[in-house]
Amino acid sequence: MKIYTYYHDAAMTSLHASIVALIPPFLLICVGIILNQHHIILLLTLPFILYSFISYQIYLVNKHRMEDSKEPVVEKLEESIVSSSMAIQFLPAPSLRMLLFRQDGQLSGEIKDIYQHKLRWFIPYFLDQFFPKAYAFSMFNEEIYTFILKGKNVSINDGNKCVATVQRKSSKRYVIDSKMSTKEVFVQSSSLFTDVKLCNDRGELLARVRRGYLPRDWDKHIKDVNTPILTVSDQVTDIEKVILLAILTKIYRYRNH
Fold first, then answer.
1. Cα–Cα distance between 76 and 144 in angstroms, integer?
2. Three-class SS string for the chain?
């Protein structure tokens, strides 16, 4: 997948939402004509019409982004599991579908909910979060790791083998247990999660997710200046990158529910 495809899918989702939102007003207007209750029916239709209008505007924005991102992309394999800098995008999902794009607009990796039952679309997140969930982390359509969430804990599996566990001690403190060692990761974030920092117990920055800070050399393919950009320290190993992604999965798991 390229960033062009993401903008296309996002545009089509908004267009479909805009069209579907016009169905209730049509039915209400028919009822209003029959019952001769024009003023009351008009008030009832306004929220649907407003939502349809907003969704259509989002469709137009993503359509323009799609057209502007038609730059050729040379596909290449990454030696590292996670690039040092990536753009994060979200597609609608019952819990999470997080896409990781490189600077050139090529999809680097994806984290998505394995169990995407249709019923879960209608369950409020405060109820859905009590059910155990599993997320697949894949690159180039090949599943590499699985993140299994149970309560406050995350188990990181490579196939059937558990390589590390993450325990959420508080909203800002996570404890990572692996065969090699036990470490702590501290989360520092703004009130609206526009700037999320993951640091070790010495205060050293391990990774950071920022919105509203799109580097100028990224805008050839990434067209939304508010796109979250994930940067990872060069000192972080591949398995540590996966662990940090597991923590971000827990933070963003209902980003586009």
1. 18
2. CEHHHHHHHHHHHHHHHHHHCCHHHHHHHHHHHHHCCHHHHHHHHHHHHHHHHHHHHHHHHHHHHHHHCCCCCCCCCCCCCCCCEEEEEECCCCCCEEEEECCCCEEEEEEEECCCCHHHHHCCHHHHCCCCEEEEEEECCEEEEEEEEECCEEEEEECCEEEEEEEEEECCEEEEEECCCEEEEEEEECCCCCEEEEECCCCCEEEEEECCCCCHHHCCCCCCCCCCEEEECCCCCHHHHHHHHHHHHHHHCCCCC
pLDDT tens string 79-113? 566 778 899 998 887 778 899 998 888 888 899 88
Q: Please, which residues bridge with residue 106 across strands? A: 2
With beta carbons less than 8 A apart as the criterion, state whether 106 and 73 touch.
Answer: yes
CA nearest 253: which of 103, 132, 145?
132
pLDDT in tens, 212-225: 888 887 878 888 88
Tokens matching residue 81 = 């599991």
**pTM of the entire structure?**
0.79
Of the CA atoms within 13 Å of residue 125, those in its CB half-sphere come to 12
Residue labelled with tokens 């991102």 = 69
Helix axes 3-20, 38-68, angle to 10 degrees: 170
Q: How far is CA 244 from CA 19, 140, 250, in A?
A: 39, 20, 10
